[in-house]
Design goal:
The protein has 550 residues and is an alpha/beta fold. It has 4 domains: 3-42 and 57-114 and 240-309, FAD/NAD(P)-binding domain; 125-237, FAD/NAD(P)-binding domain (3-Layer(bba) Sandwich), CATH 3.50.50.60; 329-442, FAD/NAD(P)-binding domain; 448-549, Oxidized Rhodanese, domain 1 (3-Layer(aba) Sandwich). It has a 5-stranded parallel sheet. It has a 5-stranded antiparallel sheet with strand order 20-21-24-23-22, with helices on both faces. Strands 25-29-28-26-27 form a 5-stranded parallel sheet. Strand 18 and strand 19 (289-290) form a beta hairpin. Helix 1 (11-23) packs parallel to helix 8 (295-309). The termini are far apart. Mean pLDDT is 94; it is low at 544-550.
């Protein structure tokens, strides 16, 4: 009887085990999990700490007992694998509750040990908490139930922001400390600024471009010298692949520090597979190695591994890194590459910003969204997308992620037939509108300028022309702009006294109308992409256009 040993019993490991059992009723399947729980919803841990999920058992999708009853799986929690012996095809196991270490032989070994929280060598960091396991959540929840007045969250990524929101929900005063110049690295700066504003609006202090010098008994000292009150400290600066077992066994480690695998998730030893947060993935856009610590990717690769072990025909899976997070009243989502990464790779892109409503504006309850699309200027391929706003962001990013996977061009977004009724969308859906704008730009009908390029045009003598209403202009405008409402443009043409013009409105639509008219008159004209709404949320408002290249 073939024996498959799986190290790690959360998303990836349990996906392998349960799928394999469905394919092979007789194989011996042993799952070894170091913690006390398997198949738990680790993405729900911050919400358990915040009291949104009240019952801990709701996080436990399965237990060792339920898995044995349904699948006859041998699931051993509290069992740590100390060493792999590839030559003997065995692992050395230590029961953490006591008892003798033992050797367990395998025919196939699957490594899904996950990732470990990065803990920087800061004086006093031993007082800080991490949030990776159910046990971590239990400890942190107990502390929060003691009603601490202040907390510092080190790290402004997905987990850090979720923890901060849930602390705030429990009445804890929260500060976020982030070494980068923005929160949420997958976003570009003009999109991330909306998230920062939302955090501030809910009373969360945000310290950007700052680090932690030391952690005291009830305080945190920043590298800037500022001292923050902190009865509670959580470190959430990221994770690194758990590769100790793989390294010690002589398996190949990839360029990103994860376990190197092929398209079927086999390691350099064909009898050993690796998946989940510990293994590298193949990026769908350029084929490079990447790390994507997401549960849905782990589950998908778990099915692939089980099918490959069972001898079924499988197709390699690449990843585009689609992710989403809730930040108070905002939905924040991204897929594919961001502009920062494209710029760093020397890859050109057409950038499109839009600010549609979640559904038809005349139907009550419509809320604003901000969408960003990145497009290859030659092929029209969609390279990435980001969305920030209220309801409706999730489904737009999901459609765009599907379009990337399907190989649709940006222009083809205009052709998608998406479900429409006033409570759910618009007759021209937000995704369709991205396609229309892409078609205008890629075809050469319209030239656009980005928020960080305005100063370049101004330095060449271009006029900044605001075509919004007088009231909108008075409420805030680009420095040095001249205001001619779009409906008055024909009559006031004589006020445009330069051969080149950067035109803008609130979101880009009136700017497009004005740009077409000015172009017809012979001006060199560019429409500010995303309009004042994008510029006003960008680092350009503070004279920091160079933030994009950081």
């Amino acid at each position: 009887m073939k024996r498959i040993v799986i190290v790690g019993g959360v998303a990836g490991g349990m996906s392998v085990a349960t799928r394999l059992r469905r394919l092979d009723a007789e194989a011996s399947i042993v799952v070894l999990e170091r913690s006390g729980h398997v198949s738990y919803a680790n993405c729900g841990l911050p919400y358990f700490v915040g009291g949104v999920i009240e019952d801990e058992t709701d996080l436990l999708v399965q237990t060792p007992e339920s898995l044995h009853e349904r699948f006859r799986l041998d699931v051993r929690v509290g069992h740590e694998v100390l060493r792999i012996n590839p030559r003997r095809r065995s692992v050395l196991v230590r029961p953490l509750a006591g008892g003798q270490e033992y050797e367990l032989e395998y025919d196939i070994l699957v490594l899904s040990p996950g990732a470990t929280a990065i803990v920087p060598p800061i004086p006093g960091v031993e007082r800080a908490y991490a949030l990776r396991t159910v046990e971590d959540a239990e400890r942190l929840s107990t502390v929060v139930e003691g009603s601490p007045r202040s907390a510092v969250v080190v790290g402004g990524g997905f987990i850090g922001l979720e923890v901060a929101e849930n602390f705030a929900r429990r009445g804890v005063g929260v500060a976020i400390v982030e070494a980068a110049t923005q929160v949420l690295a997958p976003l570009d700066p003009e999109m991330a600024s909306v998230v920062t504003d939302e955090l501030l609006r809910h009373g969360v202090a945000v310290h950007l471009a700052n680090g932690v010098e030391s952690i005291g008994e009830n305080s945190v000292t920043l590298t800037s010298g500022e001292v923050l009150e902190a009865e509670l400290v959580v470190v959430a600066i990221g994770v690194r692949p758990e590769t100790t077992l793989a390294r010690d066994a002589g398996l190949l480690i990839g360029p990103r520090g994860g376990i190197a695998v092929d398209g079927f998730n086999q390691t350099s030893d064909p009898a050993i597979y690796a998946l989940g947060d510990a293994a590298e993935k193949m990026d769908a856009l350029d084929g490079s190695a990447t790390l994507v610590p997401l549960a849905n990717v782990a589950n998908r690769h778990g099915r692939l591994v089980a099918d490959h072990i069972a001898g079924r025909e499988v197709r390699p899976r690449t990843t585009i890194g689609t992710a989403i997070v809730k930040v108070f009243d905002l939905t924040v989502a991204a897929t594919g590459w961001n502009e920062k990464r494209l710029t760093a790779a020397g890859r050109r892109a057409v950038v499109i910003h839009t600010h549609p409503s979640s559904h038809a504006g005349y139907y009550p309850g419509a809320v604003p969204m901000s969408l960003k699309l990145l497009v290859d200027p030659v092929t029209g391929a969609i390279l990435g997308a980001q969305g920030v706003g209220g309801e409706g962001v999730d489904k737009r990013i999901d459609v765009l992620a599907t379009a990337i996977r399907a190989g649709l061009s940006a222009v083809e977004l205009a052709d998608l037939e998406l479900a429409y009724a006033p409570p759910f969308g618009s007759a021209k859906d937000a995704v369709n509108m991205l396609g229309y704008v892409a078609e205008n730009v890629l075809s050469g009908l319209e030239r656009t300028v980005q928020w960080h390029e305005v100063d370049q045009w101004r330095s060449r003598g271009a006029m900044l022309l605001d075509v919004r209403s007088r009231a909108e202009f008075a409420a805030g405008s680009l420095p040095g702009a001249h205001n001619i409402p779009v409906d008055e443009l024909r009559e006031r043409r004589g006020e445009i006294d330069t051969p080149s013009v950067v035109v803008y409105c609130q979101v880009g639509q009136r700017g497009h109308v004005a740009a077409q008219l000015l172009s017809h008159w012979g001006y060199e004209v560019a429409n500010l992409d995303g309009g004042y709404a994008t510029w006003s949320r960008s680092p350009a408002r503070e004279g920091l256009a160079e933030a994009l290249s950081r």
